[in-house]
Write a structure and sequence with these properties.
There is one protein chain. This protein is of the alpha+beta class and about 240 residues long. The protein has a 4-stranded antiparallel beta sheet with strand order 1-2-4-3, with helices on both faces. α5 packs antiparallel against α6. The protein starts with a helix and ends in a 27-residue tail after the last strand.
């Protein structure tokens, strides 16, 4: 695929609110999720999980948790994107082992990752580490460059990672002739309770997927010249 083809793909993707009842061909949804899995993530920790909802009874209840938006019921499947806040404990060692096995990481860098990634995420006993980082980071930033630590901004960090995977998923769906709609309008606590997602995890987006039923749907974008700022921020209007 060249740049022109990708640009056309990106411009073709659109938010679909009406879906046909046609089933997604067997195996295709798994391919879309596999494409989502290859999205970049901070430290390559890959914190995104996917809950695929296709049972009509669960879709009915999920629709209610999404403020009765009908596309949750009419689309053949809805994917709930989930971020795991315990991703360092769950994935770090596995990720490093896989990277070492394929030659992407040497022993020296693996040691650096184990030390500093854990440090960046550590909240300490009873959250004391979080309190220290949250208090000291703004003070230290006066005299030195301080990163945005996941220990302090965990949900913000997770949301960024999950949305990268969600964008891969939606573009892959468009390439496969399917439609999607990213939904932020839902009661997160009710969605997690219904689907038995741990309360500690975050759900940034819910995405119905299927064949759209609005063939003439158009979309527009603001002009690029109002969004590009060269070297420094400049008012766009």
């Amino acid at each position: 695929m060249d740049l022109e083809q990708f640009s056309e793909l990106a411009q073709t993707r659109r938010a679909m609110r009406r879906f046909k009842t046609d089933a997604i061909p067997e195996g295709l949804l798994e391919k879309l999720l596999n494409a989502a899995r290859w999205a970049p993530s901070g430290y390559n920790l890959q914190p995104t999980h996917f809950v695929v909802v296709n049972d009509p009874r669960i879709k009915e209840r999920l629709c209610t948790a999404c403020f009765s938006q009908p596309q949750v019921k009419t689309a053949p499947a809805t994917v709930v994107f989930v971020g795991d806040p315990q991703v360092v404990r769950n994935n770090l060692d596995r990720m490093i082992a896989m990277e070492q096995e394929c030659g992407a990481t040497n022993d020296e860098y693996a040691g650096v990752l184990r030390k500093y990634v854990r440090l960046a995420f550590d909240t300490g006993p009873a959250g004391i580490g979080w309190l220290l980082k949250a208090t000291l980071a703004p003070l230290m930033s006066v005299v030195k460059v301080v990163p945005s630590l996941p220990a302090v901004h965990r949900r913000f960090w997770l949301t960024k990672q999950v949305m990268l995977a969600a964008m891969n998923f939606m573009l892959a769906a468009t390439a496969a002739g399917l439609d999607t709609i990213p939904m932020e309008g839902f009661d997160e606590a009710k969605v997690k309770s219904l689907l038995r997602i741990p309360r500690s995890h975050c759900v940034p987006v819910v995405i119905p997927v299927g064949y759209g039923d609005m063939a003439d749907l158009k979309k527009s974008r603001l002009p690029l010249d109002g969004m590009v700022h060269e070297n420094k921020w400049a008012p766009s209007f």
